[in-house]
Amino acid sequence: MDANLAPAAQAACQRDADWVESARGGCQQSFQALYQNHAGRLMPMLWRMSGGDSGRAQDWLQEAFLKAWRHLDQLDDPLRFGAWLKRLTVNLALADRRRAQLATVSEGMELQAAPAPPWPAADQDLERAIAALPERARQVLVLFCLEGFTHAEIAECMAIDEGTSKGQLHRARQILKDALS
């Protein structure tokens, strides 16, 4: 376990690791505990990545947990379950967006603007501005600024160069600055 983690974070990682080991043995209650522990953290990220489409974000969340259940045996270090799940979830969402974009292009349809955020605590103007960003710029912004990914991690997840990630982040910030000023 990482000695740099706070005791509470170490305890949470250990609890996750215990649940992972139990879930690997077929205990559905342990996997349900993992879901309850992580779904609330993943949903805001997915909502932003979807451009505010709550239904799509919920679908991605469910698909990610199904995939995690099926592939728990591929997790090398149960103490890293949270990071593994986050990466799996981001990859799944990005792959789905790529498929959707390809389908949209092939059908000749235009993408529509995302609906307003469903919860009142969100800063409405900022959320609308983020939802209106071009797809790739929004994804990079969410992953970098809100989820703490590095440009190298974003590049790997999105199959782009690090420089492209940096450029998209700059573009997103400029668009937000213009939209919110």
Relevant terms:
Rna Polymerase Sigma Factor, Chain: A, 73% helix, 8 helices, Arc Repressor Mutant, subunit A, elongated, mainly alpha, 181 residues
Q: What can you tell me about this protein's structure?
A:
With 181 residues, the chain is mostly helical. It has two domains: 1-113, RNA polymerase sigma factor, region 2, helix turn helix motif (Rna Polymerase Sigma Factor, Chain: A), CATH 1.10.1740; 116-181, Arc Repressor Mutant, subunit A (Orthogonal Bundle), CATH 1.10.10.10. The protein is built from eight helices and no strands. It starts with 6 loop residues before the first helix and ends with a helix. The mean pLDDT is 84.
Q: Helices, strands, pairings?
A:
Blueprint: H1 7-24, H2 28-49, H3 54-70, H4 81-107, H5 124-132, H6 135-146, H7 151-158, H8 162-180
What percentage of the residues does DSSP assign to strands (E)? under 5%
CATH topology descriptor of the largest domain: Rna Polymerase Sigma Factor, Chain: A
Rg to the nearest angstrom? 18 Å
How many helical stretches?
8
The N- and C-terminal alpha carbons lie at a distance of 45 Å
Largest sheet: none
Mean pLDDT: 84
Per CATH, the architecture of the largest domain is Orthogonal Bundle
Domains, number: 2
Number of strands: 0
